[in-house]
């Protein structure tokens, strides 16, 4: 089906959404252009590329990209494509390219900022339109790249809001994650987990603030945790985290859900080992923060009890346990989740170990908790592919969302405000079809036009 703006607008109502947004490959393809081709998307953390030539190859929407540390010490984000025959230059994941990229197909080389460096047997290009200085023979940089406290984002669109304005109210989550370090810096450490989900990418974003599912979907894991704790005669933190999902509805109703422009948001509450300030790990953490920031600020930093934050299109940082679940759409019914864990520089190693524990218990492929969710994401995908109905419901507390400073807040922690907010953003992106992601100056140069006047600056 081809989609006019009018048809797209009809897919999202104030309190429901048409199921085709999860299942139609044509809409998915439009999303790759109109959302992932426009928005600021998290590429990676600059600690993943600390040294000259270090790279981290990943995806922005359906585009293979590579983040790399160049000789000027800056981080660049390039399309992962050799301009000769188009080969993907480096494989997915992290590595070191050395002082330059060298294509494994015919050995064209490129500076780490993407500029063309050399091609073997140059004589073969004499008398042709080949021009090493022309952008058509370089690796192309993404239109915009910005970093916020080491978190590198890129946008394929030449125009649009600055990164910090785009992030809006969720900047405070990145700040709190970094401020938990006594030197204000974090680094990706301990490797990453990857989980391939057989569901549409938007299902995961909806679930991140879906408090109504916790005591239902996670019954299998919190009941097992409680049984285990009873056997042990105590409830260690690992089990306590799993047990939390079994809180009654009255607990979830009290949580605060915050929603911001572009589909972002965060949830206050649930569980914060820092707030109690009683266990040995937290006390040691507090002490280094107190030394660095003073008692009042140290308490405020550790007291910020924020559960999942949503950076729509990028993923979900978790400040209290220092994780980032990076969400990468792979197909209309496939989504790759990469779970990054952060070490707080200067904080006790036990804090990092606690982050690794949380990643194992909640986010790893072998987590009992994640398995609960992944099963339901798959069921949503399959159910929405049947002819059993057209719409999915976002009615909970619809019409009761409150406008607050710079965003919206739910009247009840079980509200479906976050989902309504995400689809409001989705609709705005998807209707903005008059934007372009392609740098015009370069695109206008066909092979026949190559000449001095066609060299983009
Ligand atoms: S495809 Fe890269 S050098 Fe030929
Ligand atoms: Fe869940």
Automatic annotation (TrEMBL):
Transmembrane segments: none annotated. Signal peptide: none annotated. Residues 40-154 form the Rieske domain. Pfam families: Rieske (PF00355), Ring_hydroxyl_A (PF00848). One of its GO terms (molecular function) is dioxygenase activity. InterPro entries: Rieske_2Fe-2S (IPR017941), Rieske_2Fe-2S_sf (IPR036922), Ring_hydroxy_dOase_asu_C_dom (IPR015879), Rng_hydr_dOase-A (IPR001663). CDD domains: RHO_alpha_C_AntDO-like. The keyword Iron-sulfur applies. Keywords: 2Fe-2S, Dioxygenase, Iron, Iron-sulfur, Metal-binding, Oxidoreductase. It comes from the Bacteria. The keyword Ligase does not apply. Belongs to the bacterial ring-hydroxylating dioxygenase alpha subunit family. This is Aromatic ring-hydroxylating dioxygenase subunit alpha. It comes from Massilia niabensis.
